[in-house]
Amino acid sequence: MREVDLPPDAATLMTATRAIGYSLEAAISDIVDNSIAAHANKIQINYFPNHKTGPFISILDNGDGMSPEEIQNAMRYGSKDPNEFRDRTDLGRFGLGLKMASMSQCRKLTVLTKQSGVVCGCCWDLDHVIKVGSWSLLVLDESEMVDFPGFSEFIKNDKGTLVIWQELDRLCIGENDPAMSMGRKMDEVCRHLSLVYHRFLSGSDGLKKINLTVNNEIILPNDPFSVNKSTLVMDPEMIKIGDEKITVTAYTLPHPSKLSKAELDILGGSEGLRKNQGFYVYRGKRLLVWGTWFRLMRKGELTKLSRVMVDIPNSLDELWTLDVKKSTASPPEDVRKNLKIIIDKITGGSKRTYTYRGKKETSDKFIHFWNRIETRDGVIYSINQDHPLIIDFKENFSNSADSLVKLFQQIEGNLPLNALHNDITCDARVENETMFTEKEIIQYLKSILLEFPSGETRKVRLELLRSAEPFCKYMSAIEVAEENGELL
Predict the structure, then answer these.
(1) ∠ at Cα 317 (316, 323), nearest 5°?
(2) What is the dihedral of CA 6, 11, 12, 16, to 10 degrees?
(3) Strand residue runs (E) in 295-409
(4) How many CB atoms are closer than 10 A to CB 450?
(5) Second label for 54, Cα 20 to 30 Å away, from 2, 217, 254, 334?
(6) Nearest-CA neighbor of 240 among 231, 232, 249, 248?
(7) Count of alpha carbons within 13 Å of 96, Cβ hemisphere only?
(8) Half-sphere exposure of 140 (CA within 13 A, CB side)
(9) Cβ atoms of 56 and 164 closer than 8 Å
């Protein structure tokens, strides 16, 4: 037996790895990960579609920087063993991200770095590699760095790293207007960064706050859990895997009626609340995967407000089958079992069970205008003819009671169900329930009570009405009017 050393062909491998499937936002995130791992608290992303040297994207940080030896190792494909121990704050994994993410978007990757006053730089130029047919990394003199985009800002820092992408063939291919296309794609990058790094951008959970800008515009955090007084938060639960712990925290978002249009746009994005329900998996506080139940349950309307934060340490990367792009991960079996139990807890309360026939929904103590009745053939919505306002109307117009019942039947049979379903599933704010002001409701209540003699009879009537729609939604206003003597 003999051994033969067969190193991969440089040009072939470098070209092939460009097609691994990085999106622009995932590629930029990989570079930002490196900046955070280097303890940067200021990261500046810049792009220029019409620069004199051609379109470019640059990422500048004020992190630790690298020595000449470290930068050459960082430019090596497979620079670090993925199984090697890493600091818990290290967001890297395979030692491939800097090169593969960058070259997936460009043909020329340049990295300039500064540490302890020493400036050094290296460049992977795909066309040069193809020409010479070897792993020929270009090592730059400082005089050659001056003309690179962003150098003037980079050199001002005491330390840090500047990553420059040039010859953006993948980014501009097939575009009639590359400048407009680049701006549109970078807008998507901004939205991605604001979500993926929201805990770093807000400085929450004990993290050092990071200032992240794109063309000098500050990226604000997009918290997918909208933690405010209306958000329900369960106590965190721990899942132990050997000596490591996974922290799981379940949230139920506020009902869409309690959210502004801007908040709905942020929480639902272009795909809506239903699409974005599920687990949000963080590795080192950096969001990896979101909007999935990992096939443990189906996405539905009843659970679209449910989101679960899952914090995993980087020591469990192999168990979670983390990919090179850090865009997919799958929980191991032990974790899946525990997550299933947590899912049942957070969704069980929102799902109601009915008997097979004629069982009316009795979800609370209030009297509603509509009954929901589940039958063997489906669901029926009918007007509640035991509602006190309807009873009063029938009594006052007893000669027209039959006509009124027929009118109700026509209303019930002509509900715009398809339009209602479409509005609700699209998270539209249906404004019917907010059509009346408190003042209008109090005036309406006064007019009803005037039909009853003052004293005990009116008081009994008021108690009945305040437990019925729409008055039960205005309890505080009614209490104030009652204290002021306006009702009795």
Answers:
(1) 165
(2) 130
(3) 306-312, 359-360, 370-375, 378-383
(4) 10
(5) 217
(6) 248
(7) 16
(8) 21
(9) yes
Pairing of strands 237-241, 244-252: antiparallel
What's phi and psi for 50, nearest 5 deg? Answer: -125, 35
- CA–CA separation, 323 and 475 (whole Å): 54
Prior bond of 470 cis (ω within 30°) = yes
Each residue's pLDDT expressed in tens, for the chain with a length of 488 residues: 888 888 888 899 899 988 888 899 999 999 999 999 999 999 999 999 876 778 899 999 999 999 999 999 999 987 654 545 445 555 544 457 799 999 999 999 999 999 999 999 999 999 999 999 999 999 999 899 998 999 999 999 999 999 999 999 888 676 778 788 889 999 999 999 999 999 999 998 889 999 999 999 999 999 998 767 678 888 898 888 888 889 999 888 887 777 777 888 888 877 788 888 999 999 989 999 999 898 888 888 778 888 999 999 888 877 777 766 666 778 888 888 888 888 877 765 444 322 333 344 445 678 888 888 877 767 788 888 888 888 877 777 777 777 777 777 777 777 787 677 666 666 566 666 566 788 888 888 888 887 777 667 778 888 888 888 888 888 888 888 888 888 87
| Residue labelled with tokens 């008021």 | 462
Q: Is the pTM of this model over 0.85?
A: no
Residues 6+ apart with CB under 8 A from 290: 195, 224, 276, 278, 279, 280, 281
286, with CB counted inside 10 A (0-12, 13-18, 19+), is buried
Element (H, E) at 214: strand 211-214
